[in-house]
Design goal:
Blueprint (H helix, E strand, L loop, with lengths): L1 H34 L2 H6 L3 H6 L6 H10 L2 H8 L4 E2 H13 L3 H10 L4 H22 L6 E2 L11 H35 L2 H16 L6 H9 L2 H13 L5 H11 L5 H9 L5 H30 L1
Antiparallel strand pairs: 1-2
Helix pairs in contact: 1-7, 1-9, 1-12, 4-5, 4-6, 5-6, 6-8, 6-15, 7-8, 7-12, 9-12, 11-12, 13-15
């Protein structure tokens, strides 16, 4: 048991350092873009598109924020807007399908996937999902209530100070989570839990169109998310338990359908329907993975 804690330390710190080198500059850059109004300026070019998606044009700001940083940042912007529950549901699912693109694209590249393909796929999925939801969502009573704006004057010094505090907290949390995850993974391997976990989930993996030995990655990706799941995926690749191609196949599912526990609870807590979140993300994950498999089989037949 002691060896599990000792051997997990070095790889977890390497992965945490790699992750933080990406996350911290990106978060600082986006904070500066928000402070200087660049994101709001970019959003005006998306206004015509968003009006066709059943959303007010200003909601483009919330979507761009979520796509640039995290769902939490996008949710903070949503909370300052006057939205109906129907509009909030569409915008929430768009943000969940297409959030933290710079960071999570770098993550999938690290484990062998094409970041440009993944990012383009997520942007397209967010737009298609909005069109789909605008067609099928019923009218929803009530409003997504706006929160009052902060009375604190947002000077550059305040923005930088908030970023430093948030970055320290985030760094400590990431190091702790990734180290804990790697310790847990080694303990599970030592006592054969991995094999026992994989077997009952094999039918579910087949249903999703994923490799049967991807069960652990699927669980980690849906409980902890893409960024933290990177640690587990890299560890399994380095130990030879999963190939880069198999990790790539799992990524096609996870870019549509990850952090299902946390993300769903966060948005459900502010009134967005958990049922619509879960079913829509699951549907798009199935379409993407099985659609890709069908295309690969068609290409093989054509080559033959």
């Amino acid at each position: 048991m002691k060896n599990c804690f000792v051997k997990a330390f070095s790889p977890s710190m390497r992965t945490s350092w790699w992750l933080l080198r990406i996350m911290l500059p990106i978060s600082l850059a986006v904070n500066m873009m928000q402070f200087y109004g660049i994101i709001e300026w970019l959003a005006q070019y998306l206004n015509p598109l968003f009006q066709y998606l059943g959303l007010p044009g200003a909601s483009a700001i919330a979507f761009l924020t979520a796509a640039s940083v995290t769902t939490y940042a996008g949710l903070a912007v949503m909370a300052s807007m006057e939205l109906t529950m129907r509009e909030a549901t569409i915008l929430a699912i768009m943000s969940l399908l297409c959030h933290a693109l710079p960071l999570e694209s770098a993550v999938v590249k690290k484990v062998g996937s094409n970041p440009w393909v993944m990012a383009s796929l997520r942007i397209l999925a967010a737009i298609v999902a909005a069109v789909y939801l605008n067609l099928v969502l019923p009218e929803m009573p009530g409003h997504f209530m706006a929160e009052p704006s902060s009375a604190e004057e947002m000077t550059l010094a305040v923005v930088l100070g908030q970023w430093v505090v948030a970055s320290v907290r985030m760094s400590l949390m990431i190091c702790g989570l990734i180290y804990g995850l790697m310790v847990l993974q080694r303990i599970m391997e030592k006592y054969g839990v991995m094999r026992r976990l994989t077997k009952p989930l094999r039918p579910l993996m087949r249903f999703f169109g994923l490799p049967e030995n991807a069960a652990y990655l699927w669980v980690v990706g849906n409980v902890l998310g893409m960024s933290y799941g990177l640690a587990a995926m890299l560890d399994l690749e380095e130990s030879g338990q999963i190939t880069k191609e198999e990790a790539n196949e799992v990524n096609y599912h996870l870019v549509m359908n990850h952090s299902m526990l946390e993300d769903t609870l966060v948005y459900a807590a502010v009134g967005v329907s958990a049922l619509w979140i879960l079913t829509t993300r699951m549907l798009f994950a199935l379409v993407v993975v099985w659609g890709r498999r069908v295309l690969k089989n068609v290409n093989r037949l054509q080559d033959w």
